[in-house]
Automatic annotation (TrEMBL):
It is an enzyme of class 1 (oxidoreductase). The gene is gpsA. Signal peptide: none annotated. It comes from Prosthecochloris marina. Its EC number is 1.1.1.94. It catalyses: sn-glycerol 3-phosphate + NADP(+) = dihydroxyacetone phosphate + NADPH + H(+); sn-glycerol 3-phosphate + NAD(+) = dihydroxyacetone phosphate + NADH + H(+). This is Glycerol-3-phosphate dehydrogenase [NAD(P)+]. NAD(+) binds at G7, A8, G9, S10, W11, G12, A140, R255. GO terms for cellular component: cytosol. The active site is at K191.
Amino acid sequence: MKIAVLGAGSWGTTLAVLLAEKGFSVDLWAHRKEFALELDRFRKNFRYLPGVLFPDTLHITGDISSAVEDAGMIITAVPSQALRETLSLLRASSLEETIIVNVAKGIELDTGRRLSEVVLDVLPAILPEKVAVLYGPSHAEEVSERQPTTVVAASSSLETAKKVQDVFHTSAFRVYVNTDIVGVEVAGSVKNIIAIAAGISDGLGFGDNAKAAIITRGLAEMSRLVVGLGGDPMTVSGLSGIGDLVVTCLSRHSRNRYVGEQIGKGRSLDDVVTHMKMVAEGVPTTKAVVALSKKLGVDMPITVAVYEMLFEGKPAEKAILDLMTREPKKELEE
Ligand SMILES: NC(=O)C1=CN([C@@H]2O[C@H](COP(=O)(O)OP(=O)(O)OC[C@H]3O[C@@H](n4cnc5c(N)ncnc54)[C@H](O)[C@@H]3O)[C@@H](O)[C@H]2O)C=CC1
Ligand SMILES: O=C(CO)COP(=O)(O)O
């Protein structure tokens, strides 16, 4: 089977190499033509994944139509806010039999939609059962070194989720399946916001107690949003929930934790983001989730605090004090 990977950042490149090394014929599409030429010339992604050589079965292209032509599976690995624009370059009618697997994490800012909903919006000829996501604790830097990693393939169709599992599974990249695509997507998106909060705590010089509090109470607000959007609360105890939350809040590789750390040290969001070459999805997702939670009446105090620090200039010390001095609560909700 031919597979198209759309997006040649660190994650798209890592997955394209993994699949090509498994023997699939893979087309990796980069949205800038000059970048596609550079990748093909050096057979390496110097910008996003310098240590990894491309196998011969990996083809690089700057032409999205040729990338998806005859592909049995399309992996979308562009930043969440560029997904709609990227998919709109495709002709929906030729993709009815294709499985689309989104690996970007986030919620669309303008619509509040999950990314699998964006896929169905832009490509109405595709059935919901043909859409999947692949989420979980998986930093590209470690996956590309074949370090043990576990992820979850989620689709409303178990058959589709199992196909994605078959395609990606290796002895170092273990793929589980889940049919709760709502829960997996919401959990995998909210974890980036909580990771910014964890980074802020690091930047302020707080220790392990504060980090554990952010992870645990972050999980509580993640669960409330999952339930509010119709997902299964059990999903948050899985790889896309607690799994990805732990890795992103603790990892030195995490871009979201890094953004938070810099904010905690007193830098402005603009300054941090303009000096980063990689995407931090928690930033737009914070805006999208605050709007969603207000609409649904879901209480998400850490997320709101991150919003106030990122977009309203609230000093981090004041935000933490406000969180700590909220009215006392029961730990578990009815
Ligand atoms: N890097 C990682 O370890 C992981 C990343 N992800 C997710 O994968 C998605 C992609 O992330 P990375 O590969 O890390 O990004 P990256 O920051 O390494 O690279 C971003 C890529 O998106 C491209 N891009 C930027 N604007 C674009 C546009 N308007 N249209 C098309 N492409 C555009 C850039 O050229 C670049 O190739 C994100 O949603 C991220 O959360 C998920 C799991 C692991
Ligand atoms: O989703 C990820 C790991 O599972 C990547 O997280 P960062 O974008 O914060 O690096």
